[in-house]
Amino acid sequence: MIMALANPVPEIMPDLARAEREDAMICTGRSDFPNQVNNVLCFPYIFRGALDCGARTINEEMKMAAVRAIAGLAREEVWEVPHSSSGEPLIFGPDYLIPSPFDPRLILRIAPAVARAAEESGVAERPIADYEAYYDQLNRFAFRSGLVMKPVFAAAKAAEPKRIIFSDGEDERVMRAAQVLIEEGVSRPILIGRPNVLEIRMKRYGLRMRPQEDFEIINPESDSRFREYVDEYLAFVARKGVTPERARTIVRTNTTVIGALAVKRGDADALLCGVEGRFERHLRDIGNIIGKHENVRDFSSLGLLISNRGATFFADTHVTYSPTAEEIAETTIQSARAISRFGMSTKAALVSHSNFGSRDSESSARMRDALAIIRERMPDLEVDGEMHGDTAISDVLRHREMPNSTLSGEANLLIFPSLDAAHITMTVVQSMLDALHVGPILLGSALPAHILSPSVTSRGIVNMATLAVVEANIAQEERRTAG
Question: Which CATH superfamily, name and number, covers 38-142?
Answer without folding.
Answer: NAD(P)-binding Rossmann-like Domain (3.40.50.720)
